[in-house]
Amino acid sequence: MMYLYEFCRWLQHTSVGVEVSESLWLFPLIETVHIWGIILLVGTTGVLDLRLLGLILTNQRVSELHHKLIRWTWTGFAVMFISGSLMFASEASKMYENGAFRLKMLLIVLAGLNALIFENTAFRNIAKWDDSPRAPIGAKVAAFVSLIAWVGVIAAGRWIAYW
């Protein structure tokens, strides 16, 4: 673990880390972009999750909705990842010890694993249930876990400043 902390110290003292942390406007600008990335990612994921739970858009095929949203979801993830990495670089040593940051990272991993499992299980058999207003139980569980994980990511992200 000491190597990870040393890496964080090194990262924080790189030109990128120093520039972001010392600039008056750069960190708030990056944070704003980060929030837009989260909105895009969680918004599109949330729509699909709510469809899988049968709460909205039940007359729309899941595969069509997935196809329409997936590129926006990945765009949101890319924006969130890049902006989050820049913010992390500016406070890496501090984030290393921040429990809320660690929880946020854990929940992001959980959300990613959940999506991977969904894509390789229930979504593979989508032809059987695509136009049904009711998704199979596996898809509903994945949607529920996704919603909980992303709400947790947002909450933990807000707690970082107060931890």
Question: Can you give a write-up of this model?
Answer:
The chain is an all-alpha fold and 163 residues long. The chain has one domain (25-162). The protein has eight helices and no strands. Helix 2 (15-22) crosses helix 4 (62-90), helix 3 packs antiparallel against helix 4 (62-90) and helix 3 packs antiparallel against helix 8. The longest helix is centred in the middle third of the chain and has 29 residues, at 62-90. The protein is elongated, with a radius of gyration of 18 Å. It starts with a helix and ends with a helix.
Map the helices and strands:
Blueprint: H1 2-12, H2 15-22, H3 26-52, H4 62-90, H5 92-96, H6 99-120, H7 126-129, H8 137-159
Question: Brief overview, please?
Answer:
The chain has one domain.
List the keywords:
163 residues; 0% strand; 8 helices; mainly alpha
Number of strands: 0
Uncertain parts = none
Order of helices and strands: HHHHHHHH
Number of domains: 1
Oligomer: single chain
Distance between the termini: 21 Å
Helix content: over 70%
Main structural class = mainly alpha
Give Rg in angstroms: 18 Å
* Residue-averaged pLDDT: 96
Biggest sheet details: none
Strand content: under 5%
Supply the number of helical segments: 8
Name the shape in a single word.
Answer: elongated
